[in-house]
Each structure stands twice: as C-alpha cells, then as structure tokens.
Amino acid sequence: GASVHKICAGQVIIDAVGVVKELIENAVDASANVIEIHLYDHGFEKIIVADNGHGISDTDVHTIARKHHTSKLRKFEDLDGVHTFGFRGEALNSLSSLSSLSIHTRNASSAGKMITFEKDGGTSSVEEKRRGHIGTTVSVFELFRDVPVRRQEWQINKKKEGCRIMSIIQSYAIISTGIKIVAYHHDGTKRNASATLVTSGTSLASNLSEVFGTQFVGTLDHVEFSFEDSHVRGMISKRNTESCRLSNDRRFFYVNGRPVDLPKMARCIAETYKNFLGKSHAAVVLNFEIPTDRYDVNVTPDKRKILLHDESRLVESFRRKFQEYFEAAEV
Ligand code: ADP
Ligand code: MG
C-alpha cells in the first residue's frame, strides 16, 4: 500500500542533500555540459536543477517516475567501462511521492514538454510547453510536505542543511571536467539570485581554485600512481608542514568519479602525513580508478558508502605506494 511505498521512498531520498545529489547525477548521466542548481531558501522552499543534456525521450515521458523504470543499464556490472551514476530508477519515483515534482524537458525531436506527477510515481499530465534549448529542468517544491514533523525540524536547521547541500554540490563540481556547474542561492522571498558556486570544468585544479581559491590550490601537489589493478589521481597537500597548516583539512574522495566516503583510505593518508610531518591535517582530493568488479556501490541508499572487495589488501597496497610517493619528495 501507500505507506509501504513511502517507507521505501524515504530510504532513497532521506534529505534535501540526497535530492540535489540525485538530480545532479541525472544531469551528468544525460551528458549535460552545463548544470545549474537553484536553491530557494536553502532548498527549503524549492530546488531546481537545470541541464542542457539530451532531454527525456518521448517514450520515457509517461513512465520515468515509475519505480525501477530506468533507461540506464540495470546492473552496475553491466556497465563495464561505460559509466552512469543511476541504475536503479528510484530517485524520481521517490521524489514524486515526497514533493511536488515537475519536469520541463526537450529532446532533439520534440518542442518541449512539461510533466507533472501523481504521488505514486504515475504521470499526471504531459503538456506541450515550448523550451528554447534541449535539456531538462527538474523542479522540486515543498519536499517532505506530507511529513510535517520532518519539515518543522528542517525549518530550524535549514541553513545548516544548506551548507550540507553546498558541500555535495562542491564535491561534484570539483571532480567534473567538461561540465560547467553553477549554484544559485535565492533568498526565500526575493526573486534575485546570487551565484554561490561557479566551476568551469576546465581541470581539477581550476575547479578547485574556483571553489576554494587559488591560494588553497597553491598548497597542493598533483599526485598520481598505480597500485594493484587500480590507479589514483588527484591533488593533496604538499609534503611540508606549512602547506598542511594552510590547506584546511578538506577531503574529497571519489571512486571512478563518484563521490564516496573512504574512511580507511582517509585514515591511511592521515597516518602517512603524521609519520612524515608530525601532523595529520592535509587536504585530499583523490579519484580512485578501481575496476568496477572490485566494489559494490549499492550498499546504502545514497550510494556514498561503497563496499570494496578485499578492502584491507587494497588499502595496504595503496599505503605502500603512498609512502613511496612521500619518500620520493624528500630527496
Ligand atoms: P536512474 O537515474 O537510476 O535511471 P531516476 O529516477 O534518477 O533513475 O531517473 C529515471 C529516468 O529518467 C532516467 O533513467 C532517465 O531516463 C530519465 N531522466 C531523469 N533525469 C533526467 C535528465 N536530467 N535528463 C534526461 N533524462 C533524465
Ligand atoms: Mg538517477
């Protein structure tokens, strides 16, 4: 029944951060090279994600928010190199039951459509609506409108939630090359918006300097090496105490471009900094390229936790290579 559905939905989207994350991933999956995120009153009133990706196909328009309907490959193992974030077809379904959801989309062969949804994920209407360029704009009003307690709690914390939303936007903006990402904050009542984040997508270093400033990037070194059948690439605090002191402990981990938590890798890096410099504070922005059959992403609803098969061995071989990298700097 409806309540069962809501429990399931609640597991996919547990907060506004999850909404923004899912919508950004959909835009990336649609091959957008410009993504705009609009937060009204820190997302409490409205969240809009607009992209210039390929749009929703005419055949999908009536079914996209049906549970497990996805135009993407169903199993991560099937992807084999081809990489999409989505593969479960649950995000829009959840959103249709948790908020007022509307989608304005245009693909290469249509003039534009506005889609609104029933609470059970069914399409309530599809209307022709002109749209200038190909792409998709997803609007989420009044998230958790039917869960008053949840909304009250959120109202009190909306600024804090807004910060969490910004940090998830940062994590995608930093790693995304070839995609311009702009986040706007709209002050509740006022119509005027201010851009709070702009990345051009030119390179990891340029994205980082656009997000955190050139001074911050000046404290970092490029790092890249292979270990076992994996490869790691990114930027980390220069191997001296002064850089570590300045570099602010910012940590961003990715597996094949997907933002994830890698607590064991994080600890291993902190320990190495500590061993060599006496301080464990360091900024870390690392993308691990790991064969897709060596991990599972479908462990938690928000997909941030991943299950690395044979994790301790992988961490240990990373540790050895990372230490060598450190030793090389001392010469
Ligand atoms: P999933 O991403 O796992 O496929 P979602 O519920 O996030 O599931 O999206 C359902 C489907 O809607 C996607 O498979 C895709 O076909 C379509 N879709 C969603 N967002 C976009 C977008 N921004 N551009 C084009 N198609 C989209
Ligand atoms: Mg998705």
Automatic annotation (TrEMBL):
Boundaries of every DNA mismatch repair protein S5 domain copy: 208-327
Protein's name in the database: Uncharacterized protein
Family to which the UniProt record says this protein belongs: Belongs to the DNA mismatch repair MutL/HexB family.
Source domain of life: Eukaryota
Residue window of the full protein shown: 7 to 337 of 799
